[in-house]
Design goal:
This protein has 252 residues and is mostly helical. It is built from 11 helices and no strands. The protein is globular, with a radius of gyration of 18 Å.
Length: 252
């Protein structure tokens, strides 16, 4: 039987998950921030990642509906506002669409999700299902990837601005507010997990939930790397104009 961890030990285990499994270590992420990606690969990344961005307020609504405490609901609903905005054209999703607009992608195609890779769709649906079906503790613990996102955002943003002349600070406006928001949100979620993961089973479930979320994000980048660098995308998926530079020409 596993020993019960102290709150500090549990936090250390959770942080170790991020240090070893978060997608800041993924080869596609490293290529993206170092200037090694083609424009087509970046377009494919932005288009596919939109599905994940769009699901965030949906999964947060599922979590919100399960909270019995009004104070917790007030805290958590800010996440939905951050992504949906208070009105049309505001919020994180609108800013992500600014990114895809600036890359020359058709907004209707992006929002429909019809050109996304099958693995992207499976991963996003699996995440929403996980949040709906698992315990509230596990659902909240799965959001703790936000503990690690500020460092990735800083490196990604500076690297993309330095290496891609078609990317501007306005293009990457989504990332401007995210470090502060992620810090606020992860502080709240971490405090909840520290307090409510009391048994060994609960603690292991919380750790596994964060591992699941890291694997979901990693899977999305695996699919992008395979489709746009080593092979070719699914027949109905997005094909960039510079397909030959994305390694697709050789796959024909």
């Amino acid at each position: 039987m596993a020993d019960i961890l102290t709150a500090d030990e549990l936090e250390a285990r959770l942080r170790h998950v991020g240090e070893t499994r978060y997608h800041h270590l993924h080869p596609f992420q490293l290529r993206l921030q170092s200037g090694a990606c083609s424009r087509g690969e970046i377009e494919a990344w932005a288009l596919n990642r939109y599905l994940y961005q769009a699901c965030i307020p949906q999964k947060d609504a599922h979590i919100l509906a399960r909270m019995e405490d009004a104070g917790m609901r007030r805290e958590w609903r800010q996440r939905i506002i951050d992504h949906d905005g208070e009105r049309e054209g505001e919020g994180g999703i609108a800013k992500w669409l600014k990114l895809t607009d600036d890359l020359g992608l058709d907004r209707a195609d992006v929002m429909s999700g019809r050109l996304a890779l099958p693995a992207t769709k499976f991963a996003v649906n699996a995440y929403v299902s996980f949040v709906k079906e698992r315990s509230l503790l596990e659902a909240i613990a799965s959001s703790l990837t936000e503990l690690f996102s500020p460092m990735v955002i800083k490196i990604r943003t500076s690297g993309m601005l330095a290496n891609y002349d078609f990317v501007t600070p306005e293009t990457l406006a989504y990332f401007t507010a995210r470090p502060v928001q992620a810090k606020r949100d992860s502080d709240f979620a971490l405090a909840y997990v520290r307090e409510h993961a009391r048994t060994a089973e609960q603690q292991q479930a919380a750790i596994a939930a964060l591992e699941f979320k890291c694997s979901m994000l990693w899977t999305m980048l695996d699919a992008l790397e395979h489709a746009y660098l080593y092979a070719r995308p699914w027949p109905e998926a997005f094909v960039p104009a510079d397909a030959s530079r994305a390694g697709l020409e050789a796959a024909e």
